[in-house]
Automatic annotation (TrEMBL), chains A, B:
Key words, A-Z: DNA-binding, Transcription, Transcription regulation
InterPro entries membership: Homeodomain-like_sf, HTH_TetR, Tet_transcr_reg_TetR-rel_C_sf, TetR_C
The organism's place on the tree of life at top rank: Bacteria
Residue ranges of DNA binding: 28-47
Name of this chain's protein: TetR/AcrR family transcriptional repressor of nem operon
Length: 194, 194
DNA sequence: ATTTCTCTACCTACTAGTAGGAAGATAAAT
DNA sequence: ATTTATCTTCCTACTAGTAGGTAGAGAAAT
């Protein structure tokens, strides 16, 4: 794990934190320029247009997420604990303000005015996250850990919405603890009586 | 119900629809100007600054919401149906795209870079909405309509997060039906067994 | 007659994006 | 080994357009 970060990665990193804070229209090349000490034009060398920058950024985010979720499924045996780990990840992100909001949740709220490239990336993220959650729920049901009222796919949508809604509430109230207070009962509800 | 809309109300109407579509940074005085056929400078006469415009807008939204929720509580006797009416309201808004997202949910996602006036208004809305939901849940519990796992206040937070998360999912997937598919089971879950 | 509204005309700061070149590293050709 | 050419990265300087906001004149309503 080297800490050498290429310029383009630094650009993506700061752009990501700016998007999480203020969305697509909430940041500019000048903001990135000021943050990493490089001229605006140099950013255009790495990412010709803003739409392309954000598209690459969301692509990277999706890949990181995919990798992270995959390693959760491989590293943790119990579906209940896989779900718990996913939620805990976001809980710490929100608590220490490292990534206090999902990039795609942020962009999804601006869906109507996003470049089509970015919009379809965001849809893709929502789709694969819902898919991961559904597969965890299905595995847990087959093993008797979970007892679901609805189909795994539908429960996954409900859970995903709760997580995103909880992020929003935590942000609105400025209270990181609210995230887990909302999400934890939603997970507990899925657990089969022992 | 008169259809005479003052200029300042027309400004607020179009600004609201623009905010719902793209957030605080997603619209400009020029956009409003083009939409209602008035010069930019004339908008500044009614609302000197953008922060003030949005602050008034959110104030009006809060008041409309307060009035609407109050009339639901007064016009409908059953708490379960009050809740249903609230959800149905949003379902139709999303379906016919008249107000396909809560103004305050939109702004909450941008909380970190909102003018303080606006931010506190948004917090206020979340607080009073959560309060309304909690009081409906409490009334329903006392009358035996609802059977809650947690305190009414906590269940209200969970429900509010589900509603906002469901709005986001519906928008992300471009599927209005997803809203009710997510929210309906969350309400059903609160119902006491007959 | 005064207040309310809308206008033209303008300002400064900032937006994304471009043109063209300089510095340095790398690779190829001599 | 040294020249030559190429590639990458970053720079200064610039463009056209848009941002929020202002000053002041002219209507319109009270």
């Amino acid at each position: 794990m080297k800490s050498i970060a290429s310029t383009s990665e630094k650009i993506l990193d700061i752009a990501q934190s700016l998007i999480v804070a203020g969305g697509y229209n909430g940041f500019s090349y000048a903001d990135i320029s000021a943050a990493i000490g490089i001229r605006k034009a140099s950013i255009h060398h790495h990412f010709p247009t803003k739409a392309e920058l954000v598209s690459v950024l969301v692509g990277r985010y999706r890949q990181q997420t995919e990798t992270g979720l995959k390693s959760l499924r491989e590293g943790i045996s119990s579906p209940a604990e896989q779900l718990q780990a996913y939620v805990s990840y976001w809980h710490s992100c929100i608590r220490d303000a490292s990534l206090p909001f999902c990039v795609c949740a942020m962009l999804a709220s601006e869906m109507q005015m996003l470049p089509e490239d970015v919009a379809s990336q965001v849809r893709g993220h929502f789709h694969s996250l819902a898919g991961w959650l559904a597969s965890v729920l299905r595995a847990g049901t087959e093993n008797g850990f979970f007892q679901l009222d609805k189909q795994p796919e539908e429960e996954a949508q409900i859970l995903m919405a709760s997580v995103h809604g909880a992020m929003l509430s935590a942000r609105a109230f400025g209270d990181p603890g609210l995230f887990i207070a909302i999400v934890a009962p939603q997970i507990a509800r899925l657990q089969a009586p022992d």
